[in-house]
Amino acid sequence: MKGPRVAVVGAGMAAARFAERYGAFGGAGTVTLYGAEAHRPYNRVLLADVLAGRFAPRDIALPPGAARVRTGAEVVRLDPAARTLALADGSVHGWDSLVLATGANPVLPPIRGVRLPGGAGLAGGVHVLRTLDDCAALARGVAAARRAVIVGGGVLGVSAARALASLGVAVEIVHQGPHLVERHLDADAAAVLARGLARLGVVSYPGSRARAVRCGKDGEGDGDGDGRGGEDRVSAVELACGPGLSCDLVVLACGARPRTALAYAAGLGVRRGITVDDALATSAPGVYAIGDCAEHDRVLHGLAAPAWEQADVLAARLSGARPAARYRGSRAPARLAAGPLQYAAFGEVDEQADPGLDALRLVDATRDSYRKVLMRGDRLAGAVLVGDMTAVDAIAEAFGRRGDPAADDPHHLLVPG
Amino acid sequence: MDDNGTDTHCPYCSLQCGMRVAVAPGGGAEVRERPAYPVNRGVLCGKGRSAAEVLRPEARLTTPLVRDGRGGNLRPASWREALDVAARGLADVRARYGPDAVGVFGGGGLTNEKAYQLGKFARVVLGTANIDYNGRFCMASAATAHRRAFGLDRGLPFPLADIARTGCLVLVGANPAETMPPAVRHLRELRERGGTLIVVDPRRTATAELADLHLRARPGSDLALALGLLHLVIADGNVDGEFVAARTTGYEEARAAAMAHWPERVERLTGVSVSELADAARMFGEAGTGMVLTARGAEQHSKGTDTVGAWIDLCLATGNAGRPYSGCATLTGQGNGQGGREHGQKADQLPGYRDLDDPAARAHVAAVWGVDPGALPVAGRSAYELLGTLGLDGGAHALLVMGSNPVVSAPRAAHVTERLGALDLLVVSDVVLSETARLADVVLPAAQWAEETGTTTNLEGRVILRQRALDPPEGVRTDLAILRALAAALGRPDGFPYDPEAVFDELRRASAGGPADYAGISHRRLRGGEGVFWPCPDEAHPGTPRLFLDRFAHPDGRARFAAVTHRPAGEEPDAEYPVYLTTGRVTAQYQSGAQTRRVPALNAAAPGPFVQLHPRLARRLGVVDGEPLAVTSRRGRAVAPARVSEAIRQDTVFMPFHWPGEGRANTVTNPALDPASGMPEFKLCAVRVERAGEASPAAASGAGAAR
């Protein structure tokens, strides 16, 4: 074997990007991706589009460069001292550098009835949307569904809602937070987004908590009679405030939690994610972490763009192309572009939370567009766009000039010309 | 010559407009219309109309010049003395450092005959590997990408007039309204016929004004843009699966590459919003037929080859290649940019577009030249690598320049100028005393386009004949005569005829059977005609206006997708150099300006360099229109007046590159090279912009300075 052995635990987006860049940078080592899923790397960002039928599942494959990809190869143990990893099949593999790109698991909310008794998986008709297999299962569920409830109104919930609505399913979003996508949007922006969803036939209930998922025998209730009678299947979601939403499909979109068990068991530093420094290095020599599983500077990004920035930096370092490259955090905007549903959020978004911020707002109710820039003194601190995206380039440009005074009437950021 | 003058072609760009040159009633020459010629139907731009001005004795060289020692002045000399100094100098350097220490630098303005003869001179007489030319600064990236994808590189694989009949035309980094105005009628005709036009350019150019959709992409992002459009074409279900299966290979890898460029990411990389991307993808994907034309804006990057490859992918995926009224093509720049790259002045090529490292190609050409194939040198350095190492250990110590002005046109021009100064011998053959000729030890005054016969190959691959319309003034010789004399002085009295037709006949034999096969084309056949499209393997062959209709030029007949990925430019803006500089052209000047800056009417229209910048950047800098601006990069500083305009992005400034001196844009540009093509990154580097008056090393960065 020539060059160092670079083992990557995970074959998701960060892993694929790392492998592709490592090759492009001329890295001399042999990269192996160990993926637990049965699929080669694919673009998770596009799962809602796969669900909506815009892409065939095989079409969203990502290029892993020259890396060797081992699918269905779940890593069960790491030994940083011996520089080995063990697979579920019992085999043990050595490495010279180890990259943890284990990603994140969907959060299962504490809702009665979402799990089958005994914890053996999700109740019939209850889905998550994190993997291609999830997507395939959900697509099968959609084929027999008329009414869906999505638990969670974050970015995944909103894009899943749009995809399901495009397939002719009536969709309701139950969201515990005060308004949709509260991590990225303020209340007014979320209201514009909610109106956009309503036009697609999606009703959202912010400030509502799902208490229980009720199941009935398949074929009962609205009687679709698909002949699989006798199976328990979701029939309604009960809300804490009282009413029940009858449905035959539930999608849990309550966020994701970094997958850290392997790292923790191996004695690596773990907080919410696997902690890494600017070199993406963990507490163990030769071991790195990137993507959704990594916590850098106390931040868990959980988005594709920062994951790829981390992968780029690590690939530049380990390939030898730029051994001193450093990751200094990401300023990538949060962005949703799902047909008519569009938003972008840069930096700080809530002036209510910080008296040092001044907001300038432009609301066009007739076009359902909402734009806001947040200034800290003469510096651009954040921005929110919903609906009309014509300002997205100008704001990205101004936001990209780190720490530089906007030196400009902030009006121009809202109305570029 | 009759009263109506002689049919010939313009000396400037790759459109090679037909024109007539006649003796004016008051003496001297004048340019007249030639309406029958199909490419421009008589229409000429200001450069073409005034082309005869450069023929005036006042505008040009009419006697050889020789420099008396280092630091001496150039003084008039006899041809005998000038050729003697040149030949002895070349021989000395060769004797002292070996044959590869003698470099040759040609030009995309040379006729096919000259380009061929220059390549032969370098390989046979000098025995050097180090010959390259300024076309490396022009379309090398497109040429490399087209050869990879199609197995053959011809700028347009279809006649220019076809573009009016396509359903959707995408121009990427191309500004024909400014660079080749007579071509614009095809764009207008396209719109009149109901076709749509998409223009990709960081500036709202005269061409962008004509577009249905203008994508104002960030400099250096055309690769990401193409992949983003491919992504959306796949999402929209507009891939032509049948075409992909029958006529291409590599789709799955290209699709995976496109999946790595999803719309939100591409918006972030390009500055083009997702909704504009979606509009463009739908316009192109649903047009029925579509074409993409790239030009220097997309190509002059350290990722130029990959960028063109990605646009080719978009065409291949949608079935828009190798079919009528569709395809991916490049708008070649220089007058003979196409033919100039086919016949052997490129470091890695032999005549007929043969590869220098192909044993069969070497054997064929060596037989025509009457030499042993083993005696032919191997591939030498690409243009910037050649110029950037002049006078250094292992670099060339003598250089023969023919028809090029790298002092103005090369990237990192101050360094190139310094390297030229370190040569033991610089010999320049040119029609005017260019900035490069001013540095030479020997300057050889050459005849001009209207004074000698020769062929060029225009952007369509149409081989045309420029006919001699006038006698050159006394004291001037043709480049072919110069090469003949130098060859003789260096011990090769035979094999270098000065008659262009004789040279062309040899070129035909050398090209026979090669990718660019000229065997069936002759001066006789071209005389009075509309030209012949190569390949044309025999005299009975009609030529090939449309390539690839049945098969692509790879052995299996299939086109190749390129699996490519966006990557940053050689230099991206940072805190110290926060603004993009992009460079380009204005209508009234041509290339380094060596010819056009000698024409009063053109200088009146475009008197000098300028720095175009957005009003908001101007306000941040505290700059008003017309005020001198300093544009500084890691390589140097250029100063030119501000031209404030909303037609440019706020993060970018633009400078035209036609001028020498303080306003020389190429003082600033970055010679980061494309690894596949050797193309330097003219189209983008990181700069600091400040008011020239107050510029100091301590001055704040371009953004945020003086308000």
TrEMBL record, chain A:
InterPro entries: FAD-bd_OxRdtase, FAD/NAD-bd_sf, FAD/NAD-binding_dom, FAD/NAD-linked_Rdtase_dimer_sf, Rubredoxin_C
Swiss-Prot/TrEMBL keywords: FAD, Flavoprotein
The protein's required cofactors: FAD
One GO molecular-function entry: oxidoreductase activity
Domain NADH-rubredoxin oxidoreductase C-terminal: 346-398
The FAD/NAD(P)-binding domain, residue ranges: 5-309
Keyword Transmembrane: no
PANTHER family: NITRITE REDUCTASE [NAD(P)H], PYRIDINE NUCLEOTIDE-DISULFIDE OXIDOREDUCTASE DOMAIN-CONTAINING
Protein name in UniProt: NAD(P)/FAD-dependent oxidoreductase
Lineage: Bacteria, Bacillati, Actinomycetota, Actinomycetes, Kitasatosporales
TrEMBL record, chain B:
Entry keywords, A to Z: 4Fe-4S, Iron, Iron-sulfur, Metal-binding
GO cellular component: membrane
Gene3D superfamilies per record: 2.40.40.20, 3.40.50.740, ADC-like domains, Dimethylsulfoxide Reductase, domain 2
One example GO MF annotation: 4 iron, 4 sulfur cluster binding
Listed SMART domains: Molybdop_Fe4S4
Keyword Nucleotide-binding: no
Ranges for domain 4Fe-4S Mo/W bis-MGD-type: 3-59
Swiss-Prot/TrEMBL GO biological process terms: respiratory electron transport chain
SUPFAM superfamilies found in the cross-reference section: ADC-like (SSF50692), Formate dehydrogenase/DMSO reductase, domains 1-3 (SSF53706)
Protein name: Molybdopterin oxidoreductase family protein
Biological classification of the source: Bacteria, Bacillati, Actinomycetota, Actinomycetes, Kitasatosporales
